[in-house]
Fold:
Amino acid sequence: MDRSLSLYIHYPFCVRKCRYCDFLSGPADSAARKAYLGALEREISLVPEFIGKRPVRTLFFGGGTPSLMEEGELSSLMEALCSKFTFEEGAEISMEVNPGTADLSKLRAFRRQGINRLSIGVQSFHDQELALLGRIHRAEDAVRIFHEARHAGFDNLNLDLMSALPGQSPEKWRDNLEKACSLGPEHISAYSLIIEEGTPFASMELPPLPGEEEDRRMYHETGEILLSRGYERYEISNYARPGFACRHNCVYWTCRDYLGLGLGASSLMGESRFDCVSSMKDYLSAGRWEDFHEEKIPLTLEDRMEEFMFLGLRMTEGIRTGDFEERFHVPFEEIYGKTAEKHLKEGLLAEDMGRLFLTERGLDIANYVMSDYILDR
Ligand code: SF4
Structure:
């Protein structure tokens, strides 16, 4: 059994809320941010020994805007983490960076603290689009932060881009992709905007959104452009130069264990899931490991099999039927044989050396394909 563990740390503060965002995040003054970090370090110190003993392969600081942290705050957090966990040699340590919150000296400090991968929230290289999204930065900040990250010694950089924005033409999206490629990051994430209920976007009058067909066209062009620039698609929305797939996210897609620390963070450990409390008041007053968490949710065998399929098929290399059998001690054929056969016949799935993966056509209607893997209870 693979004993290694991945850690996710949630930093729930931002300068201000973006108009499309439904993450657990928001603005707060420095006293509130300090109090939170105190509680986070307390939570880390309370991690049970049987979890703390597992070697850490990847660590991801997400949010929110973790790049709002000052060097002293990050160094104290890293100290707390290092006194609880042992990191594997070459562990991937990523941080999300909002271009409006960092400069060269801060990035150098992050590098000194052991961060070795940055995920830069660019979203767009057009100021008009950034303003519409409610981002705090301008396009020139994204370009500046990229070069500063290189100067600070980062050789593993991701750029986050967002397509299907209100009023966005395919030309503008192509231009965003070209600008991203011209910087030469190791990794590009390209997600379509989803308008979530309860966000300002859901109630605003917005320029028209690209239609479904246009959205599909942008998606296909994204693959073509990035492929021609040396990026491989390894997941529905993620592209990387060979060897630079995000190891942390691959842990999620392959259903391996991860521990989430911080407000609202989720964990998957063996056969159960558990979430940290999402009320700041409860989080700050938690004194025992149990107080930091909502009740554990045991996963049934069916839940775990479905997740293995849903998440695994997001990756272009798909799933290995042998892994399924090793994990669940039952022949793949017996559980999903008929469904997979149907998808193979329809050209939605392909097979190669024990791997099953979505074809281009399957990727286009991935949600439909995956819904066929829901099991009867
Ligand atoms: S910076 Fe990120 S987490 Fe913060 S409000 Fe904007 S999208 Fe949400």
